[in-house]
Write a structure and sequence with these properties.
This is ABC transporter permease. It is found in: Cell membrane. Belongs to the binding-protein-dependent transport system permease family. CysTW subfamily. This protein is an all-alpha fold and about 260 residues long. Helices cover about 80% and strands about 0% of the residues. It contains eleven helices and no strands. It has helices spanning about 1-25, 45-50, 55-90, 95-110, 110-125, 130-155, 160-165, 170-200, 205-210, 220-225, 235-260. Helix 3 (about 55-90) runs parallel beside helix 6, helix 3 packs across helix 10 (about 220-225) and helix 4 (about 95-110) packs across helix 6.
Length: about 260
């Protein structure tokens, strides 16, 4: 009994430590206070101000750039990572192990090293840094995560399904699209969401590949804003909205996964 209480207490304390900062931001998004921690009464003015794009043009531009980069990078990395995972899965055991190890290196590698490496690569190739280089950089570090998400689904799949589809007259592309893709779709969705989250959250790689053309993402905007001596109050409602959207998406995806398992 005591052991059970201690385990539950530990779990709740851990959850509190993880989510307390987010809850504080959400709570203080409903007040006009310019400084976090100073409650001046319930108000929706920060949300109204956030919706007024004219007043916070640079913040909304940074948000739009972040979302655009994240969706492009996540989509491309999902396609590349899925194809790469299929290729790795069909290798011989020793080669598969070697490729799996190589795929893990970018994940274990520090973000700052990846950012500097990509910066030097773009400079050496004479590529002007901006939106395109940021997208390419995000695709680079998101793809290995997609590979890791898709590979377990391939290992769970019946290896004879593909061959059976070919024996029944399907072309390799038809077998890939109608047999393999449905089997690995949950891994692809998980990889896409993971890539999307990582791309939105990234700062180190972005700051090295964003250039000096005036492009800003949400992470670089917050960094520049913090260096000025404080954070724009409208970042609190924006953070709250992003958190709620991600939470709703996760709930929907988990419910769909549970329904698929029950079927």
């Amino acid at each position: 009994m005591v052991k059970k209480v201690l385990m539950q207490t530990y779990l709740w304390v851990l959850l509190l430590l993880l989510y307390a900062p987010i809850l504080i931001i959400v709570i203080y998004s409903f007040t006009d206070a310019k400084v976090l921690g100073n409650w001046t009464g319930f108000s929706l003015n920060l949300y109204r101000s956030l919706c007024n794009t004219g007043a916070h043009h640079s913040l909304m531009n940074a948000l739009i750039n972040t979302i655009a980069i994240a969706f492009i990078a996540a989509t491309v990395s999902t396609l590349l990572g899925s194809v790469a995972a299929i290729g790795i899965y069909n290798l011989k055991a020793r080669s598969r192990k070697a490729m799996g190890f190589i795929n893990t290196i970018p994940i274990l590698n520090g973000d700052i090293i990846t950012g500097i490496s990509l910066f030097l690569l773009f400079v050496s190739l004479g590529i002007t840094q901006g939106f395109t280089t940021v997208v390419l950089a995000h695709i680079t570090f998101c793809t290995p995560y997609v590979v890791l998400s898709v590979l377990p689904r391939l290992k769970q799949m019946n290896p004879n399904l593909y061959e059976a589809a070919l024996d029944l007259g399907a072309t390799p592309m038809q077998a890939l699209w109608k047999v393999i893709v449905p089997e690995i779709r949950p891994g692809m969705v998980s990889g896409f969401l993971l890539a999307l989250t990582i791309s939105i959250d990234d700062f180190a790689v972005t700051v090295f590949t964003i250039g000096n053309q005036g492009l800003e993402t949400l992470s670089t905007y917050i960094y520049a804003d913090a260096r000025k001596g404080g954070l724009t109050p409208e970042l609190r409602p924006l953070s709250a909205v992003i958190f709620v959207v991600i939470l709703v998406l996760l709930i929907i995806i988990n419910r769909r996964a549970d329904k698929a398992k029950n079927k």
